[in-house]
Amino acid sequence: MKVLITGGSGQLASYLFEEMSSEHEVSGVDIRPPVHEPAMGRVAMGDIRDVEAMTSAMEGCDAVVHTAAQVSVQRSTEDPSGDADTNVMGTIGVLRAAVAAGVRKVVYISSAAVYGDPQRVPVDEEHPLAPKSFYGASKLCGEHYVRAFGSTFGLEWVVIRPFNFYSPRADPSSPYSGVITKFAQAVREDRPLRIEGDGLQTRDFLHARDVARMVTMAVESDLSGETLNCGSGKGTSIIKLASTFSDIFPEKVRVEHVPPRTSDIRDSVADISRARQVLGFETRTGLEEGLRDFFQ
Known about the structure:
Elements: E1 2-6, H1 11-20, E2 25-30, E3 43-45, H2 51-58, E4 63-66, H3 73-78, H4 80-101, E5 105-109, H5 134-153, E6 156-162, E7 164-166, H6 179-188, E8 193-196, E9 202-203, E10 205-207, H7 208-220, E11 226-230, E12 236-237, H8 238-248, E13 255-258, E14 267-268, H9 273-279, H10 287-292
Parallel strand pairs: 1-2, 1-4, 2-3, 4-5, 5-6, 6-11, 7-10, 8-13, 9-14
Antiparallel strand pairs: 9-12
């Protein structure tokens, strides 16, 4: 199978290259050059809003994995138009190109942000969709376009909603990096782990390698017209996360509590029953094993 990955220079894409390359012909496209070894020499420069360029990149492809996105909640608040330009217009560009190039299936990487504040935990795919950030709104809008292109043009599709995925390939210098990346960098630099509020807020953490494995399963399957959560199905409090770092580095970890951000979601845990049922998906990398990955 020939597969194109948009956002081919990103951390998730690097694991997709690793996961898919033994069985498939995989290439990528991005506005930035790759920095991770699995993607080196396999990513062409291109903007997802450029339909002509995307159509050319997709020629002969059986499937497209659309990971390219503006992923920062903060940046989406500062520039909602720019966020929508990338996440909505860019997604439309990818979908138009996929139809023009005769691509069979698109797997769209959405986000758990489409749920907003969970009314119940764990969160299943039937949970009301009420994003509280512009980022979540743009990702949900992208989902609607994926479904509309499917019904209008017969394009096969799968939407995947990852929860809090992490990996050592995330950029620790980015102000938008996730809590695990920030904690790992703090340990390296012998700084305290900054916990916002009481630390009892929970998140569903999974390694990007597991996300890549689920995406690959979706690409290879006959599945179409499905929306699936991607998580571990387990909630971990931020204070427990800090404790796990302390178990690994008992002499290096210190904790500092700072005021909470009022905009933060309190608890977010995925119900992955549907992914188990239709794909047989389970995570393979436990949290402690995944954290040790940062210090190999």
